[in-house]
Amino acid sequence: MKKFVVLVFVLVLLVSCQAKTPGAPQELKVMVHDSFAISEDVIADFEQENNAKVSFLASGDAGTALNKAILAKDNPLADVFYGVDNTFLSRALQEGIFEAYQSPLLEKIPDEFQLDPDNRALPVDYGDVCLNYDIAYFTDKGIMPPQTLEDLLKPEYKGLVVVQNPATSSPGLAFLLATIAHFGEDGYLDYWESLVANDLLVVNDWNTAYYTEFTRSGGTRPLVLSYASSPVAEVLFASEPVSEPPTGAVTGPGSCFRQVEYAGILKGTKQHDLAEKWIDFMLSPTFQEDVPLQMFVLPVNDEAKLDPTFSQFTAQPQEPAFLDPETISANREKWISAWTEAVIR
Amino acid sequence: MIASRTSQRSLLTLLLWVPALVFLGLFFLYPLSSILKVSLERAQGNFLAPFIEVIQSPSTRQVIGFTFYQALISTVLTLLLGLPVAYLMAHYAFRGKALIQALSGVPFVMPTLVVAAAFNALLGPRGWVNLGLMSVFDLAAPPIHFSNTLGAILLAHVFYNTTIVLRSVGDFWSHLDPRLVQSAQVLGANRWQAIRQVSLPLLMPVIASSALLVFLFDFTSFAVVLILGGPRFATMEVEIYNQTVSMFNLPLAAALAILQLFFTLIMTTGYSRLANRSSRPLSLRSHTVTQRPLASWRSRLWAGLLIAVLLLLMTAPLLALAARSITQFETVRGQAGSIFQGLTLDYYRELNHNPRQSLFYATPLTSIAISLGYASLTIVLALAIGLPAAWALASDSSSRLNRLLDPLLMLPLGASAVTLGLGFIIALDEPPLDLRTSVLLVPLAHTLVAFPFVVRSLVPAIRSIRPRLRQAASVLGASPLQVFRLVDLPLVGRALLVAGTFAFAISLGEFGATALIARPEYPTIPVAIYRLIGQPGAVFYGQAMALSTILMVVTAAGMLAIEHFRLPGMGDF
Q: Which residue from A302, A293, A312 is spatially nearest to A38, judged by alpha carbons?
């Protein structure tokens, strides 16, 4: 009886709270990693339509942001988390930070991206990690840029490649996973040892690789690990206007790794309805079409139209590599340690 | 009577410590112990297992060994450069000394991201040095390989920390009574013998304390090792980050963090003992007595040479960066190797432009305003908490409480940013202290970093106030508050300015902690640089260089202000 009274009281309170303030916008907190970006008018659309105020919490790189969400799961920092990728997905699901949500928009999204059968984590965007090459360098030397992972072992590419450390860099890990998917658990270390023999350079972070070692920034390596979409950025943000990208991507079968990014409603949210609306919004064409030029990744929704510059210049990898999140999660530490032993020491 | 006065005094000391203790307790010890507890609990009930893993695993043992090894070499190199320059600064009066002192302080507060870019602009594959060598000797490839070497780590550490030796040893040396050395020389010692047998023993405590401080900074080095050192090198701080973020092995990260804190505590305890000994004046003399002009051509030559080396190391990378921010480099298609060079102010012009209409792409100019806002708050917080603590430390250096608490002040320097950042998340999550998403977190974190420096620069000034002045004022009828307002405050005012400027500069340059807690719509200058440098596109890189240059200029102005206002007395820094 007592419980019932309390329940009724709470319900009345809840209803009256919501009824009391129809005019004031509700606040939705969205936790994101520090590469997240969105256009001003796109977010304004959502806020107006739903009478909401969205505030974003950038929480460090993708790994750090996820760790924060996990450690705060008993008292969540936000209502929605965006930015866990398929290499971290299992960690998020095992720790149980998300509520399931069957968004109606999932129909528009190909099954290959829907890696969580329970729909706790919903796919938002994807991008391919590929080696980029400096077109001018290869034109000058009169050699063809490589097309496949095997090509990189050829003598003409000796001393030309710089990649990132999988222990410290997300594209670095993606590339390691591509080689594991392609050569298998028994073969990938041999491949890396041959790469080292072909004078591979490994650095810790994307900045150093792209802005120090890459020939286009003045380094000595015309092949750098980056994204399939990096050539687009080189056109859009060149210091002198250019009509064609100065870089290309190595896109042969299995040479790129596909990163899919997910969003989910954080367990314990008090803004359940609004959080669902936000997820729907992230999967809708409005948001999906904004994604390429803001974050240089591709929309998962089939109906989203790509910006013409983007679709013209982004590279299209053939058969990008894939490993399922559970395998990655179970082996990440082992693979990275083995790689470190073989390549660094 | 005497007993009650002593107890009154220790009560006062305790009261003065309260703000600092509350602050450190709430924003350092509590979050830190929370995250360490939660992390160790994930070790499935066996708290010792991660520690055993640390000791048994050859790779973590190697990391610990390397942490000490690189810190030791870096410290020795820093002393090798710092001590001769300190001697020079202490014994000779010459023009431009304040400027040199100020410039040597700029690197100390620059974010590593900028320093890495600066060294790259100087020594990288297309750095000015390699470009010069390539064109002079007609080389096809850059002859100097800088990044990913131990040399890069060491050079950057010397670059960062030489100013500590200059400031503490140089100041102390400049006040040593020259008559001691003169008497030794009269008694037949040559100059070297006099330095070795008279000055050095007197200087030993201050040399040791500054060496220890340098060692501590090298020991906890993170971004220098990660960015400039490359994958072959890892300090404990780097390993804590990797284990936390990449491996999510929180127990192991916690064990390493505890070990690092333990070593830090040993060092800060040693530092506070030594600093106390060296700041108890022997019979110190003013500059005017101890310094002479550079008279002979030999002394001028040596001085010129030393200062040239110092300035080359301290300013060449920063100048290279500034030059890079106004130079356009672009590989012209079809002519690899040859590069178009031209001067441009475009990158500065672009600074106020939001190319993608992104929400919270705060334009870099906005980020300057945001940084200034945070820095002002940091000054207020750091002074409000630091002044009472400095007063307690200064008034009674023999108090047991002081000796116990002093080493705690610097402990935050030994905590890894990622550990503490996660600690904030789990500890400060209940009202009234639900600060996890508050904009206040940034100035709070900056205060934590700036706090030890504020205290260290205030203590000597407060000590320099003669008790007799206060007594005279009291005898003449001034209330304690009036004594404070009319005697103490004017004397400490300059030191407050210096301490405040330190807090300001540290807040401007802090990156490690800020990156974890800054709200995206309020990025500081280093966070804005990090965002610019994290994406492909020549415009962004140019803008990052331009913004770094602006940060550098503002910091240098701050450092010059410190030199201008510094008491002619001594400071620990």
A: A293
Please name the residues between 65 and 94 in chain A that touch chain B, using a CB distance below 8 Å: 67-68, 71-72, 75, 77-78, 91
Q: Which of B453, B493, B570, B532 is nearest to B205 (CA)?
A: B570
Structure confidence by residue, pLDDT tens digits, B494-549? 778 878 888 888 898 888 888 777 777 788 899 888 888 887 877 788 888 888 99
From B31's Cα to the closest Cα of chain A, the distance in A is: 12
Burial of B272 (0-12, 13-18, 19+ CB in 10 A): buried
**What CATH number is given for A21-126+260-306 in this structure?**
3.40.190.10
Residue-range domain boundaries for chain A: 21-126+260-306, 128-258+314-343
DSSP state at residue A39 = B
Q: What are the pLDDT digits (tens) for B538-570?
A: 778 888 888 899 888 888 888 888 777 765 544
| Residues in contact with A93: Cβ distance below 8 Å, sequence separation at least 6, in sequence order | A116, A120, A121, A325
Question: What is the Cα Rg of chain B in Å?
Answer: 25
Rounded to the nearest 5°, which phi and psi values hold at A21? -120, 70
**Which domains occur in chain B, in start order?**
10-41+357-573 (1.10.3720.10), 72-124+150-324 (1.10.3720.10)
* Predicted TM-score of the model (pTM): 0.86
Give the bridge partners for A321, in sequence order: A257
Token digits of residue B186: 């009269």
Contact B359 A43 (CB under 8 A): yes
Q: Which two tokens stand for residue A12?
A: 């009345």
Beta carbon pairs, A and B, within 8 Å: 199
ipTM for this prediction: 0.83
Residue B333 has pLDDT above 50, yes or no: no
- How confident is the model over A115-142, as a mean pLDDT? 94
Which CATH fold topology does A128-258+314-343 show?
D-Maltodextrin-Binding Protein; domain 2 (3.40.190)
User: Cα–Cα distances in Å, from B432 out to A76, B30, B389, B438?
Assistant: 16, 15, 25, 12
Q: What is the pLDDT of residue A66?
A: 92
Return the minimum-mean-pLDDT range out of A20-24, A31-35, A127-131: A20-24
H/E element holding A225?
Answer: strand A223-227
Residues 504-533 of B with CB under 8 A from A: 515-516, 518-521, 530-531, 533
Q: How far are the Cα atoms of A83, A220, B348, B373, B517 from residue B369, in angstroms, in the given order?
A: 29, 38, 16, 6, 18
Q: What is the model's pLDDT at position A288?
A: 95
